[in-house]
Amino acid sequence: MRRRSIALAVATAAALTTALTGCGALDTAMDCVKTADAIATSVSNLQQAVSNATNDVTQIEESLNAIDTELGNLEKTTGNADLAKAIDDLGKGVDSVRAAVKNGDTTPDIKPVTDAAGEITKVCTPG
Predict the structure, then answer these.
(1) Which of 2, 6, 61, 126 has a CA positioned 20 to 30 A from the CA of residue 93?
(2) Alpha helices in 52-125 (DSSP H)
(3) Is residue 86 a contact partner of residue 116, using CB atoms and an 8 Å limit?
(4) Average pLDDT over the chain, rounded to whole?
(5) Under a CB-based contact definition with an 8 Å cutoff, are residues 113 and 67 in contact?
(6) Residue 102: which region, alpha, beta or left (left: phi > 0; alpha: psi -120 to 50)?
(7) Cβ–Cβ under 8 Å, residues 45 and 91
(8) Furthest-apart CA pair in the chain: how many Å?
(9) Taking the mean position of all CA atoms in its chain, how far away is CA 41?
(10) How far apart are CA 123 and CA 105, in angstroms?
(11) What pLDDT does residue 14 have?
(12) What SS3 state is found at 32?
């Protein structure tokens, strides 16, 4: 009887640990999806800002700052190597656009930003 109680307690503890770990993984995945969505919105805003740069170049900087903020949020939650690489690539793309704008380019190449954002979305999308 005592052995059965111990076995049941161990099995229950293992199941609980697995469930809690699964919830943590699920929470992380949901954070990734939410942040990827926010990054996609920021990249869309960046594309619009570049289109309107002749009217207001500060919109580009605001969009880049929003992307940086979301990248910071995503970096805190990832342990995935593919996602870490996409985050790094997006950061480099943002830096490149920022440098181009600083040097007077009102129509910087944002393809590295859009490509990396697409990769983040791909990595973060379940299934």
Answers:
(1) 126
(2) 58-75, 81-102, 111-124
(3) yes
(4) 74
(5) yes
(6) alpha
(7) no
(8) 80
(9) 12
(10) 31
(11) 37
(12) helix
pTM of the model: 0.71
pLDDT at 86 over 90: no
Residue 17 to residue 109: CA distance in whole angstroms = 48
Torsion, Cα 20 30 79 92, to 10 degrees, reads: -170
Q: Which two tokens stand for residue 48?
A: 């619009």
Which residues fall within 8 angstroms of residue 77, CB to CB, at 6 or more apart?
A: 28, 31, 32, 35
Taking the C-alpha atoms of residue 97 and residue 90, their distance in angstroms, rounded to an integer, is 11
Residue 63 has what pLDDT?
86
In the predicted structure, residue 9 carries a pLDDT above the cut 50:
no
